[in-house]
């Protein structure tokens, strides 16, 4: 075996910290050229306007990160700059970056939270600042505590006439009807190929409002034909960052709307923009492409450059992953709207979160923030709920069940939250044994059993709960497979480990479904995703190579070479056909370590910046498309193409992002190792120069 693989990271107490550094969004933000240029321009305008009126510019930079905004302030002519950063590894790095750019004598770096800063002669700040520049925002704008941080700064650290950069934030909402997004929230009735209902959704599940956690998403990649726009974008909240009295935690707004088309209001799409300076000369928008103020201009500019690269409609606007857009699910009231009909959008926020409701008239009682009451949105991820609602996937499973199950079948289900396992019971098998070690997931499944009067179902709270007599009667072992702890698709190989441990109890002729899984890889050119892992070098004229070194060092230690991403949100172009890496057999040799080698042959290797990896589950030995469940592309990729890959939207795929240039030879040697003890897979792609 190849001993260059690490089966696990050493536990020296620093792993979590190193992983936090590796996965921080500092580099991602610095790759956001629009953000950088508009912060830079706003600083130039603001400081110049102060100087034009005879005032000095004393700048406070809260959460300086790399120190970039502080250095921009010095370059723009600030008379003094105080920068604070509480995350010590980043603060130490910023200190070195500022020195490397020759500004160590002009920027005072304080390694504290802004709420701990002291003002006065000889203290952290000699005087209150009259310019605040900061980036405290997330996808929800206020989710990182911006309201509290601004209020404290305005009260304790800033002058009454302070100019804030940005000056104002505006939150927009757009009401849509969208079965696709709703499929990630509400479970659907499960029916067989003939339309016969197998499982109905319990009322407490159907009416649950779901999780309060923000659902951030790259809205520009949402297929335009997948939703019906019911309103124009509506400005629902404004935040004036320089007005202490306006930055309150709890607000509600009611906006009268008129339906653009007929439909059911199901989902609210949300984004925000920032007015960067007080005069309103600089605007930074996080809108999806159809609402972005610069979309047409940027699209035309791309056309004038005569670029050979074919870009999807949603990829002309500036790309960023640290600020995305968000999806909010409306209460499941099923209010039908006719074109032109008046209704009211209800918008709410507290200190950290947003939520929305709709009604035919203004609400008299405020709508509380959503929280899951049914358990499904706690036990399962949104993508998992999407899998459970995937009609094509379900059809393949159910058609296979009809072929292999009989009234004498006893089925052991080694997946968590498997409604397909319950469906097998409804299809008339003798008994279904459901492995459900998680108490919340088990209660969710019990509710389905009770509501649908499903017979002959027995729950196993652990694998050890399977007795010898029960085990000896099992005719089939079935898994989707799915386990909530899985992050990457092949993390569900835990199924094989469970099966291996139960093997001594099971009949020798038991049928195992799926019988195997195959790992595949595809070399790609990501249009934008590569930026989250790409070195910065210089940024807006400043040397940030020290931050590159910090992130690379900790990423090498703490991060897997393959990370999970929902690749449908990140357009990519194939640079070769799909390559089979390894097949893992659950029947014959799961207990054996495996290692395989091969090569990826890449067309136009100068375009290569990532390698996508996924797994297909084979229900039987035929490997037929009709008995294969794939977590990868919807359409097989057989060669390089300028057509973006169509990925399964209900799975996260694996992706290896290149930090260094490939060898340009067009051939990437690879090695894959499967460790059955840990039920894990390890990858190595050798694209560096020798």
TrEMBL record:
Superkingdom per UniProt: Eukaryota
GO molecular function: histone methyltransferase activity; protein-arginine N-methyltransferase activity
Signal peptide per UniProt: none
Residue intervals of the Protein arginine N-methyltransferase domain: 228-342
Family membership: Belongs to the class I-like SAM-binding methyltransferase superfamily. Protein arginine N-methyltransferase family. PRMT7 subfamily.
Cited function: Essential arginine methyltransferase that can both catalyze the formation of omega-N monomethylarginine (MMA) and symmetrical dimethylarginine (sDMA). Specifically mediates the symmetrical dimethylation of arginine residues in the small nuclear ribonucleoproteins SmD1 and SmD3.
Full protein name: Protein arginine N-methyltransferase
Organism, scientific name: Anopheles christyi
């Amino acid at each position: 075996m190849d001993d260059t693989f690490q089966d696990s990271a050493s536990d020296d107490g620093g792993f979590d910290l190193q992983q936090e550094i590796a996965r921080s969004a500092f580099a991602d933000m610095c790759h956001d050229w629009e953000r950088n240029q508009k912060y830079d321009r706003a600083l130039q305008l603001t400081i110049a306007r102060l100087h034009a009126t005879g005032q000095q510019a004393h700048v406070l930079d809260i959460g300086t990160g790399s120190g970039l905004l502080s250095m921009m302030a010095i370059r723009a002519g600030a008379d003094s700059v105080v920068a604070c950063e509480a995350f010590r590894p980043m603060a130490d790095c910023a200190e070195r970056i500022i020195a490397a750019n020759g500004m160590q004598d002009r920027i005072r770096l304080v390694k504290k939270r802004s709420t701990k800063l002291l003002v006065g002669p000889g203290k952290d700040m000699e005087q209150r600042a009259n310019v605040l520049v900061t980036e405290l925002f997330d996808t929800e704008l206020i989710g990182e505590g911006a309201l509290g941080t601004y209020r404290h700064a305005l009260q304790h650290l800033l002058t009454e006439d302070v100019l804030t950069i940005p000056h104002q934030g505006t939150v927009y909402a757009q009401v849509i009807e969208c079965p696709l997004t709703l499929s990630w929230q509400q479970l659907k009735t499960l029916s067989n190929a003939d339309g016969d209902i197998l499982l109905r959704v319990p009322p407490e599940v159907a009416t649950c409002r779901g999780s309060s956690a923000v659902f951030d998403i790259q809205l520009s990649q949402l297929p335009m034909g997948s939703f019906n726009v019911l309103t124009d974008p509506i400005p629902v909240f404004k935040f004036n960052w320089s007005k202490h009295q306006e930055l309150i935690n709890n607000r509600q707004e009611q906006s009268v709307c008129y339906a653009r088309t007929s439909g059911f209001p199901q989902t609210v799409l949300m984004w925000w923009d920032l007015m960067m300076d007080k005069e309103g000369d600089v605007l930074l928008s996080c809108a999806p492409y159809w609402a972005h103020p610069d979309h047409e201009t940027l699209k035309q500019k791309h056309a004038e450059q005569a670029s050979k690269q074919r870009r999807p409609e949603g990829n002309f606007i500036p790309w960023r992953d640290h600020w995305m857009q968000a999806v909010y699910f409306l209460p499941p009231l099923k209010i039908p709207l006719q074109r032109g009909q008046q209704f009211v959008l209800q918008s709410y926020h507290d200190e950290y979160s947003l939520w929305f409701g709709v009604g035919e008239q203004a609400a008299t009682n405020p709508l509380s923030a959503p929280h899951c009451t049914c358990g499904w949105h706690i036990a399962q991820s949104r993508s998992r709920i999407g899998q459970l609602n995937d009609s094509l996937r379900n059809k393949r499973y159910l058609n296979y069940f009809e072929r292999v199950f009989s009234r004498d079948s006893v089925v052991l289900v080694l997946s968590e939250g498997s409604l397909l396992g319950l469906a097998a019971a409804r299809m008339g098998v003798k008994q279904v044994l459901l492995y459900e070690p998680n108490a919340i997931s088990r209660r969710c499944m019990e509710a389905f059993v009770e509501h649908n009067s499903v017979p002959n179902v027995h729950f196993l709270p652990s694998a050890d709960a399977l007795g010898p007599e029960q085990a000896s009667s099992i005719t089939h072992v079935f898994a989707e497979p799915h386990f909530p702890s899985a992050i990457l698709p092949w993390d569900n190989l835990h199924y094989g480990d469970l099966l291996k441990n139960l093997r001594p109890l099971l009949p020798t002729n038991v049928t195992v479904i799926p019988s195997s899984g195959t790992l595949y890889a595809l070399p790609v050119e990501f249009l934008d995703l590569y930026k989250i892992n790409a070195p910065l070098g210089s940024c807006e004229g400043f040397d940030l190579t020290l931050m590159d070194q910090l992130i690379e060092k900790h990423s090498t230690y703490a991060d897997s070479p393959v990370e999970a991403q929902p690749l449908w949100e990140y357009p990519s172009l194939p640079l070769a056909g799909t390559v089979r890496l390894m097949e893992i057999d659950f029947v014959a040799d799961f207990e054996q370590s495996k290692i395989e080698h091969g090569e990826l042959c890449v067309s136009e290797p100068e375009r290569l910046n990532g390698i996508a990896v996924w797994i297909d589950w084979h229900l039987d030995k035929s490997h037929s498309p009709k008995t294969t469940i794939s977590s990868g592309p919807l359409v097989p990729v057989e060669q390089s193409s300028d057509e973006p890959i169509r990925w399964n939207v209900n799975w996260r795929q694996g992706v290896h992002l290149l930090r260094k240039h490939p060898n340009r030879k067009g051939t990437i040697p690879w090695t894959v190792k499967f460790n059955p003890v840990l039920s894990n897979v390890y990858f190595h792609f050798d694209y560096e120069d020798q």
